[in-house]
Amino acid sequence: MGRSRTLPLFDEPPATAPEGFAYHPAVIDEAAERVLLTQVRALEFGDVVMRGVTARRRVVQFGWRYSFDARALSEGPAVPDYLRELQGIAGTLAGVEPAELSEVLVTEYPVGATIGWHRDAPPFGIVVGVSLLSACRFRFRRTVNDRVERAETELAPRSAYVLSGPARTEWQHSIPPTTALRYSITFRTLRRRTAGGQPQSGGRRQRSESAGT
Ligand SMILES: O=C(O)CCC(=O)C(=O)O
Question: Is residue 155 domain-resident?
Fold first, then answer.
């Protein structure tokens, strides 16, 4: 029986970090993390529902809202002032103006929560993710010539990562069940705009995940 194009049979040994992935430990100190956590914990998180399944992780979006079911981007609430300094740090890491990181997603991962294999949605460009409170595993995979290449790293609390280039467009990423409560604050640029200045939200769905747990 020939090898399937959609279900590779063999995995490559773990690859080094994908090109376009940059990891930055300790981008904020513990005092700044405590202040952020006080604000973040007071947010009204909403459920993530994908294909009728509610994930264990919960989210709040600022700047823009992206609906996976509708594949549509709409204007969201303003980015709160207490996230501006972190948005500035994220802009420096990504090499863009902070205001270009106009979508901000705050995610709460209770123990055992996951995010399944996906690339971030098509309307978004560069991604900068900041971890708070506890560490998690961060996995990558891509398929090249029917083989799955994999890589994995740990995201420490107060660290940040940048996803651009192949790490953003070729590789999927996921987080397996968390072992302690974790929050992440993810900043994203918008990839492209129509002539009228509105971000386009069409294109191929890039998420292969279900809601996860
Ligand atoms: O929590 C994280 O750092 C990853 C978030 C993520 O991959 C996503 O929201 O698409």
Answer: yes
Pocket test residue of 184, 207, 208, 210 for ligand 1, highest count of atoms within 8 A of CB: 184
Tell me the pTM: 0.87
Please write the tens of the pLDDT for every residue from 156-192: 999 999 999 999 999 999 999 999 999 999 999 998 6
- Ligand 1 environment, Cβ below 6 A: 105, 107, 115, 120, 129, 173, 175, 184, 186
Q: Which amino acid is at 202?
A: G
Report how far ligand 1's centroid is from the alpha carbon of 111 (Å): 15
Q: Is 206 inside a domain boundary?
A: no
Which of ligand 1's atoms lies nearest the C-alpha of 173? 7
Identify the domain containing residue 75 by its residue range: 21-188
- The answer as to whether 193 is a domain residue is no
Distances (CA, A) of 200 to 66, 150, 191, 193: 11, 31, 8, 6
